[in-house]
Design brief:
Elements: H1 4-15, H2 29-36, E1 43-49, E2 61-67, H3 71-83, E3 88-91, E4 97-98, E5 104-110, E6 118-123, E7 127-133, H4 138-147, E8 150-151, H5 163-168, E9 172-173, E10 176-177, E11 182-188, E12 194-198, E13 216-226, H6 229-246, H7 267-273, E14 280-281, E15 284-286, E16 294-296, H8 302-320, E17 329-330
Helix pairs in contact: 4-6
The protein binds flavin-adenine dinucleotide.
Length: 334
């Protein structure tokens, strides 16, 4: 259990959130506070604006956004919200999600910097096993691996997510994916129980970890090869340079919006060949730089993005007979 002083401070924060009256709290706020009282030390933001937690910068408020301070707190939290029948979702850096304008009912659990330990656990002649918590950003992990002269994660340079999000999405680039460097993943189930699973026994496929809903990636163990830090750094820099050249990195987006279809040209090529580069709905636009990026030009709503997504899907279907499936996760059932 955490210290009383700290808890008292947080409890006050929960009960009287800055900038909102208690009228704005969901009806379950009181019972949630009671359920959390004995263990919670992390932050709680009531009626938090989800646009601030996603790279597309759209979306309404979530009833509560919470930041657990470690795996035990996460487990107790999941058990607590389950007991009071409140829905929850996990979020990393929000770089592959679209939050509807209506927001999200229930609790958004953000795994971030309080959940971001990196630890070297085993080393032999040419390889090293590294345990990394889910909230660690890929950027921090790549930087750490580079500094320690460990190769394998260069492909992830410039992917703006957390390790947990990258495992769940089996994030990849340059013909490499997370599954290629993972040896083990610790998964938490809906009851808050942990289980370590060998990566080779998981059903990783293109942009999916195959574990279904309600599971949380808590940490991963990566197998990295010893290398010269300078050479690792050069490869990372080259991948970043290519991204900056080929992607609209200065604009708000969620990366590639659609999955590349099987047995067809890549989604970006199909969208470009359908003449859709630069197409706009409200503030959402098909990027003129990379057609598989839907960007927020500044004032887009989630509705704009969803409408544009439908137009792109219809036009590509009509022209090429190919159905495009979103890679971006549309949260809240919009
Ligand atoms: C500019 C840009 C470039 C990108 N380039 C690439 C690329 O090259 N390759 C690529 O694959 N992706 C790319 N992406 C997409 C995105 O960065 C990756 O999918 C990333 O791995 C998502 O991580 P996240 O922490 O942001 O996940 P989020 O967007 O926060 O979550 C994504 C999904 O995973 C779930 N989730 C997140 N964390 C966990 C967890 N610990 N346990 C269980 N579920 C979880 C969420 O509920 C959600 O359904 C890009 C995005 C942007 C904005």
């Amino acid at each position: 259990m955490h210290g009383g002083m700290q808890f008292t401070r947080q409890y006050r924060q929960i009960m009287t959130p800055i900038g909102s009256s208690s009228d704005n709290l969901p009806h379950w706020a009181g019972v949630f506070n009671d359920e959390m009282a004995d263990f919670w030390s992390g932050e709680v933001v009531w009626n938090g604006c989800m646009a601030e937690y996603t790279t597309l910068k759209v979306g309404g408020n979530a009833d509560a956004i919470v930041f657990p301070m470690g795996r035990n707190e996460l487990s107790l939290l999941i058990q607590g919200v389950r007991k009071i029948n409140v829905t929850w979702i996990i979020l990393g850096k929000g770089s592959n999600v679209l939050v509807p304008d209506e927001g999200i009912r229930g609790v958004v659990i953000v795994l971030g910097r309080n959940f971001a330990e990196i630890e070297r656990i085993k080393s032999n002649n040419d390889s090293v096993s590294v345990r990394v918590e889910a909230g660690c950003s890929l950027a921090s992990l790549v930087k750490w691996a580079t500094k320690h002269g460990l190769s394998g994660l260069e492909f992830a340079s410039g992917i703006p997510g957390t390790v947990g999000g990258a495992i769940v999405m089996n994030a990849g680039a340059w013909q490499r994916e997370m599954k290629d460097v993972l040896s083990q993943v610790t998964i938490m189930d809906v009851r808050g129980c942990f289980r370590a699973t060998k990566a080779k026994d998981m059903d990783f496929t293109y942009r999916s970890w195959g574990q279904g809903r309600g599971k949380v990636a808590v940490e991963g163990v990566f197998q990295l090869k010893k290398d010269d830090p300078g050479r690792v750094s050069e490869r990372c820099k080259e991948y970043i340079r290519l991204r900056k050249e080929r992607q609209p990195y200065k604009m708000a987006s969620a990366g590639s919006f659609f999955k590349n279809p099987k047995d067809s040209e890549p989604a970006g090529k199909l969208i470009e060949d359908a003449g859709l580069k630069g197409l706009k709905v409200g503030g959402a636009m098909v990027s003129p730089i990379h057609a598989n990026f839907i960007v927020n030009t500044g004032k887009a709503t989630a509705r704009d993005i969803i409408e544009l997504m439908h137009v792109v899907q219809e036009k590509v279907q009509k022209k090429f007979g190919v159905g495009l499936e979103p890679e971006v996760k549309i949260l809240g059932g919009a």
